[in-house]
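Chapter review. Work through the record for Antitoxin MazE-like protein before attempting the end-of-chapter questions.
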Amino acid sequence: MSHVTGMEAVMPMPVSERVQKRRAALRAAGLHPVQIWVPDGHPTPRLRR
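Structure tokens for Antitoxin MazE-like protein:
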């Protein structure tokens, strides 16, 4: 007899759906997203080649 927890048949929520729910909850709490730019902490600039 195998042990069944009932979790095997549950499909995980897609990441995009989780993010959407989280953002909706934050907006409902009166928050909004912002983008923050910070200085690069590397001693020398990185060059793209």
